[in-house]
Write a structure and sequence with these properties.
This protein is an alpha+beta fold. Helix content is 28%, strand content 17%. The protein is built from seven helices and eleven strands. The strands form four sheets. A five-stranded mixed sheet has the order 1-5-6-2-9, sandwiched between helices. The radius of gyration is 21 Å and the shape is globular. The termini are close together. 36% of the residues are buried.
């Protein structure tokens, strides 16, 4: 009987880990959502490369997410990173949308964030040169650095990295006016390769981005060192960290002050998908008849 209990407990762990993996549909959604938001930058970009999925970046994200640490990967060099955590049902569209919603705190002319706010997730999402993304999720019993249990950690890595201090995420001008020769196709304001392997793409939208509730969600953006903080404004003045926060500054949000409320259905990873229930019931039935 004890052997059966141990085996069953192990099965639960395996099922929970499998459920934390991103599906092919999730991967497509992540890429599509990035490209949708990259196509909608305001002001418009002369050059914005089309994003695609990268399995190597996914592996990097996967290995780091499994550590369940609420801080950035210290081993990254030329790779960017965005973090997101929630103790609710994980939705990649919601996560990326929350990153994008930081655009309202970003001043393109001064290349800085509004005082007391973050915008580094947004600038990484729309960094013109970045064209590869790989992400992973992990169900963390405890997330080191946050007082929360049973949360989903979502890690996205980007290549090449964005968020270089002193540099803007893209150059303002007519859309696709400076696409390079090997990315000469203008696809919804994005510079795409001359040969497009897939005819299917994201469902392009221009509607207002929804305001997601963030009482259970957290984000962190990775900042790359490059040039001194503070850039010339439109009038020639300098807006430094005393006026506005640097792009990518990691800080706690108001949501950090609010206690987590974990609903029973959210706390059990085994209940997340119907096929898991079927597998679980089959195993239980097998144990009963034996």
């Amino acid at each position: 009987m004890r052997s059966n209990q141990v085996t069953f407990a192990t099965l639960l762990v395996i099922i929970a880990a499998a459920d934390a993996q991103l599906s092919e549909e999730d991967k497509a959604t992540i890429v599509d959502q990035h490209n949708v938001f990259r196509s909608q930058v305001d002001p418009t970009a002369t050059y914005m490369r089309k994003m695609k999925w990268d399995e190597n970046l996914k592996v990097v994200a996967e290995q780091y997410a499994a550590k369940c640490v609420w801080d950035h990967n210290p081993d990254l060099e030329d790779t960017g990173e965005n973090l997101y955590a929630t103790n609710g049902a994980f939705d990649p569209t919601k996560a990326i949308t929350e990153w994008y919603n930081e655009h309202k705190f970003y001043d393109y002319d001064y290349n800085n964030c509004t005082d007391g706010e973050m915008c580094g997730h947004y600038t990484q999402v729309v960094w013109a040169d970045t064209y590869r993304v790989g992400c992973a999720t992990y169900l963390c019993e405890k997330l080191q650095g946050l007082a929360v249990e049973k949360s989903t950690l979502f890690v996205c890595n980007y290549y090449p990295a964005g968020n270089f201090i002193g540099e803007k995420p893209y150059e303002n001008g007519d859309s696709c006016s400076k696409c390079p020769d090997d990315f000469s196709v203008c696809d919804h304001n994005i510079c795409a390769p001359d040969i497009i392997l897939s005819t299917t793409g994201p469902e392009w939208v221009t509607t207002t981005v929804p305001e997601w509730m963030t009482t259970s969600d957290f984000s962190e953006a990775h900042q790359m060192p490059h040039t001194p903080a503070g850039t010339d404004g439109p009038d020639g003045s300098t807006a430094g960290a005393t006026d506005k926060e640097e792009i990518g500054t990691i800080r706690e949000t108001a949501a950090d002050m609010i206690p987590y409320i974990i609903q029973p259905a959210q706390a059990c990873a085994v209940m997340a998908k119907p096929w898991l229930l079927t597998l679980l019931m089959t195993v239980l039935f097998t144990y009963v008849i034996h």
